[in-house]
Amino acid sequence: MRLSEFLAAVGAKTPAPGGGAVASAVGALAAALAQMVVNYSIGKKNLLEQQGELQAAIETLEKARAHLLDLAQQDASAYAVLNELQKLPPEDARRVREMAPAVERAVEVPWTVLLQAIELLKDFERLAPITNKFLRSDLGIAAVLADATARSAAWNVRINAMDLSPAKKAEVLAACQRLIDEAKERCRRVELATAV
To answer: What CATH number matches the domain at 3-194, 1.20.1250.20, 1.20.120.680, 1.20.1600.10, 1.10.620.20?
Structure first.
């Protein structure tokens, strides 16, 4: 889907794509922006010792970008199924049979986005001291976007976790908060390392 089509679909009066797909798309933008920083760092004379690590980073970021775009589609699909089931009467046989797996899937996808955002931030921390200093602001922006991805995905984890069992919900919410805190701290480190 072209960006303009995606934005139109997000803005339409339909339940999906929504916040989950947007969170994933923002994460993909963070990965792409970091790729640009790395591409401008490869071949720099003052970074010759880091070329192997930079080449590896290109592959890692490319995979992350593709994964996040795929997760955007998965999120839209998972929420569409959940939304459809929620419209059925509580006693409907299909709803009874499919609701628990649909809720788990609606939690699993944004959870995976949250984890991927953390991985991006770890990558950005490693890249901050070994990339082109003239693109520090771009890496800083990538970190802010990855942090926003984590925080945004957490919203969907929390809202969808409300339909889990009480014990599972408590476990998911506590773990979610720890990851949000980690993302915030990692973003802060990247911002400090890229400050001009």
So the answer is: 1.20.120.680
Q: How far, in Å, CA of 124 to CA of 126, rounded?
A: 5
| pTM recorded for the entire structure | 0.92
Q: Quick one: CA torsion of 64, 65, 71, 73, rounded to 10 degrees?
A: -160
Determine whether 54 is exposed, middle or buried from the number of CB atoms within 10 Å of its CB (0-12, 13-18, 19+): buried
Per-residue pLDDT in tens (0 to 9) along the chain, 196 residues: 788 998 999 999 987 788 999 999 999 999 999 999 999 999 888 888 989 999 999 999 999 999 999 999 999 899 889 989 999 999 999 999 999 999 999 999 999 999 999 999 999 999 999 999 999 999 999 999 999 999 999 999 999 999 899 999 999 999 999 999 999 999 999 999 999 7
d(CA 136, CA 194): 5
Beta-carbon-side half-sphere exposure of residue 16 (alpha carbons within 13 Å): 17
Closest CA to 113 of 91, 80, 141, 145: 145
Residue 5 burial (CB count, 10 A):
9
